[in-house]
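Exercise 7.
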Amino acid sequence: MRATECSFFKGDIMIQRLSRVQTIALGFLMIIAVGTVLLMLPIATKSGECSGFLNAFFTATSSTCVTGLVVVDTYSGWSLFGQAVILLLIQIGGLGFITIGVCFSIFLKRRIGLKERNLIQESMNTLQIGGTVRLVLKIVRYALIFEGVGAVLLMIRFIPQFGIAEGIWYGIFHSISAFCNAGFDLMGKFEPYSSLTLYYDDVLVNVVVMALIIIGGIGFIVWDDISKQKWNIKKYMLHTKIVLVMTLALIVVGSVCFYFFERENLASYDAKGQILASVFGAVTPRTAGFNTIDTGAYSEGGRLLTVVLMFIGGSPGSTAGGVKTTTMMVILLYAWSTLRNQNGLNIFGRRMDEDCIKKAATVFFINLLLAAGCSLMMAGVEKSLPLSDILMEVFSAIGTVGISTGITRDVTVFSKYMLIFLMYCGRIGSMSFALSFTEKRHNATVKLPIERITIG
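Solution. The predicted structure, written as tokens, is:
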């Protein structure tokens, strides 16, 4: 990637010699910093006292990285102002600060140059630079439509429960949180850290929240392709086909496996509640963070399944985190083709290039190594906590999920900073984080001799 400049967002101040990846990483860091300052204000807490740096920093990072891990219950700890700040950070983090910056530039009638378009392409993970500005406008328009419809539908349930003003706020907050795959909730009004457990058998709330999670998690590129091709599936891009197939497979297989592992926890539910809880348990780990049954009561099999789903996450160019569905599909197909001694990686009548395979393998193993390394360090510090709880927390952070067994607020300061680091890496992408330090490439003029080694 070439070095570039980013001028919009900064007025006349130019950030020179920053690559696109570095600009995105720095931008998210700046948003987190502003959010931290706002949440440290006394007006942001219900007690009227300063929340303290770590709580504000953790919450701002979790909000901007659309994770949902919390050290303070969102309803009980934060005032209406604090909740509004969190919601704004979620929206910016979900759509991406580059998207918001482009919208402001267009509103101010400023020209979007080639360098800015390159930055948009990087942040959106689009396949081509042409039409990126139109794509940004389409993303914002569709996001507002989906969030608006979701909010209205949720208001049908919340207004009778909480009254008009509070019911409207609850509808808006949970719709944006679900669409952006954030997992923040205001259900601490009933019981702190309870998430959506009171609505485990509510069809309206479950279906709306799951639909928003899935729509937000399939990615902006897929939206654009579907809007152009409608129901003409044969004309869908290969990317769209892979995303849709993997998403459907993970939901179906995940739901069946979740019911199998958690059938004892679901035994007291009726058939409707069991179906809704099973499907919700497969959808929310990718990567929303809501829960309708107590995650602390998950079986060991249920926890492992959740960790796997959190690690996979959503799709590229979406509001979700994880290594992404396309990465997992490439890894699986490559392993399968190798076992069958096939040349190349073929799917849906197309062949993938070698760079795609290399990038998928790099993303997969960087995330795995980060999660494994941080798990080991946390296990050494949090010796009183079960390893399964630590693994849930770590994979939830790096996958920007937000599902927790309840240990987030109880871990040491070291572990909280570790989780903050993982949430940040998970949002900008672990590979992007690494590239932000090592992006200057030096092509060797002389190649070293080849020597084979034994594998397997």
